[in-house]
From TrEMBL:
Domain of life from the UniProt record: Bacteria
One GO term of the biological process aspect: respiratory electron transport chain
UniProt keyword annotation of Lipid metabolism present: no
Organism in which the protein naturally occurs: Caballeronia concitans
Domain FAD-binding PCMH-type: 39-220
Entry keywords, A to Z: FAD, Flavoprotein
Pfam families, per the entry: FAD-oxidase_C, FAD_binding_4
InterPro entries per record: FAD-bd_oxidored_4_C (IPR004113), FAD-bd_PCMH (IPR016166), FAD-bd_PCMH-like_sf (IPR036318), FAD-bd_PCMH_sub1 (IPR016167), FAD-bd_PCMH_sub2 (IPR016169), FAD-linked_Oxase-like_C (IPR016164), FAD-oxidored/transferase_4 (IPR051264), Oxid_FAD_bind_N (IPR006094)
PROSITE patterns given in the database record: FAD_PCMH
Flavoprotein listed as a keyword: yes
Cofactor(s) listed: FAD
Molecular functions (GO terms): catalytic activity; FAD binding
Protein name, entry field: FAD linked oxidase domain-containing protein
Family from the record: Belongs to the FAD-binding oxidoreductase/transferase type 4 family.
């Protein structure tokens, strides 16, 4: 530890108290390893502030001592965005103690929560007021709203309610200078200049630290209908999606696509989760309707929709959940696909987005390219078809050594997939963020103009490059010099 680093740690102890400054490797390890165990770093300290003023104090000290800081929420990220580097010179700032819900306004349909509040707690608090907070994802029992905002998390409700950015009305942020921007305005209309809120959302802590947010709530639905439909192809799924939108409009709140092999993996590793069809289907869609009128109204609408889909030959078979337990069982099939993949072994993951209309062509073309490059590769394709987000994952061929497969094929398969994404004018990261995992690929596929704009913003707000360096955008020293000239 350098003299400057030691001086910084001592100053943080005076600010936070010794019990909230962790330096022992045994204590810091949970904060320096990412959820996937893909990235391991070291930190000069893990800092646990209790409020926004303490966060601001930490940032001012970091600036004074030239210490880079890595903000962290629930540490459930999938791109290494909250993990420090291996130098041991960076400090992790955990927001977990900023865990208060500051208020809920049922008339304004808003909830104000600090960055460390766990997503499931916000959902529960909204439900206690007969409201819905629709952001829902697999890690909701441990991820925090600050992390959700920093990565602009998606989840299963984006089709109807939008991603985290669209659910946020205002932010409180500590800037790289240690100042506090109070933008906690619960306004749906505020046309008074640059939208600073959207600048910080999705920035993964590279432009400032989100400490609190005003989030939108929605009236709780009276009824939900969940169903599974078997189809012959992703092209049929697109036709079914168009038909479902025409019948249900905004009542359609979920439309998830799952390939046959995805569900066969679930059946192999979680046999208690029963696939409800007698025969396999090339694709299965999980769809959900949320109705503000009644259960009967929702079911009548669904039955008319399915009758037309079956008559037109779009859908091969369908089953509707008869109760909450069966509805949960259908969702369990979907949510256990990543778990089944993990049980099956190492694989190459892609969180990508393409225009919804391109999904069928993208799957057909990319499957063929990968089959030619790696004969026997097994494709695990699933995701949120309703918003164009696919988890397009590649499992090693049966019987092939998985570690050797990753070493040999991960880089070339990533290149093939990302070239296809680029061809279809898509995104190489739909909902997991860039972190350190995809920052180089993002710099490659974005246009030079877009990269320069991002680097200029980074240099303007964080001229010393102390806010989560190495994530999201590559630092341009020249941009920093130009900004401070």
């Amino acid at each position: 530890m350098t003299a400057s680093t030691a001086s910084f740690v001592d100053a943080c102890i005076r600010l936070l108290g010794a019990s909230h400054v962790l330096t022992d490797p045994h204590d810091t390890e949970p904060y320096t390893v990412d959820w996937r165990k893909r990235y391991r770093g070291e930190a000069c300290a893990v800092l646990l502030p209790a409020d926004t003023q303490e966060v601001a104090g930490i940032v001012r000290l970091a600036r004074e001592h030239r210490i880079a800081i890595v903000p962290q929420g629930g540490n459930t990220g999938l791109a290494g965005g909250a993990t420090p580097d291996a130098s041991g010179a960076q400090a992790v700032v955990s927001l977990r103690r900023l865990n208060r819900i500051r208020g809920i306004d049922p008339h304004n349909n808003t909830i104000t929560a600090e960055a460390g509040v766990v997503l499931a707690e916000i959902q529960a608090r909204a439900e206690s007021e007969q409201r819905l907070f629709p952001l829902s994802l697999a890690a909701e029992g441990s991820c925090t709203i600050g992390g959700n905002l920093s990565t602009n998390a998606g989840g299963t409700g984006v089709l109807r309610y939008g991603n985290t950015r669209e659910l946020c009305l205002g932010l409180e942020v500590v800037t790289p200078q240690g100042e506090i921007w109070d933008g906690l305005r619960g306004l749906r209309k505020d046309n008074t200049g640059y939208d600073l809120r959207d600048l910080f959302i999705g920035a993964e802590g590279t432009l400032g630290i989100i400490t609190a947010a005003v989030m939108k709530l929605h009236p709780a639905p009276v009824a939900k209908v969940t169903a599974l439909a078997g189809l012959a192809s992703p092209h049929a799924a697109l036709d079914f999606f168009s038909l479902a939108q025409r019948h249900a409009g905004p009542l359609l709140t979920g439309f998830e696509l799952m390939s046959d092999f995805s569900l066969r993996l679930v059946g192999r590793h979680f046999p208690q989760l029963r696939y409800p069809f007698g025969e396999p289907h090339a694709q299965t869609v999980l769809l959900e309707l949320s109705d503000s009128e009644s259960d009967d109204h929702a079911r009548d609408l669904f039955e008319r929709m399915m009758e037309e889909a079956l008559e037109q030959g779009i859908v091969e078979d369908a089953v509707v959940a008869e109760n909450l337990a069966q509805s949960q069982a259908f969702w369990d099939l979907r949510e256990h696909i990543p778990l089944a993949q993990a049980q099956e072994g190492l694989n190459i993951k892609h969180d990508i987005a393409v225009p919804i209309s391109s999904i069928g062509r993208f799957i057909d073309e990319t499957d063929a390219i990968i089959a030619n490059a790696v004969p026997g590769a097994r494709m695990v394709t699933f995701g949120h078809l309703g918003d164009g987000n696919l988890h397009y994952n590649v499992q090693a061929p049966e019987g092939v050594d998985q570690k050797a497969f990753l070493i040999e094929f991960q880089t070339p398969i990533n290149a093939l997939v990302y070239e296809q994404v680029h061809k279809h004018r898509g995104s190489i990261s739909a909902e997991h963020g860039l972190g350190q995992l995809k920052v180089d690929e993002a710099m490659h596929f974005k246009s030079p103009v877009e990269v320069r704009l991002m680097q200029t913003i980074k240099a303007a707000l964080d001229p010393d490059n102390l806010m989560n360096p190495g994530k999201v955008v590559r630092w341009n020293a020249q941009a920093g010099k130009e900004n401070t000239a």
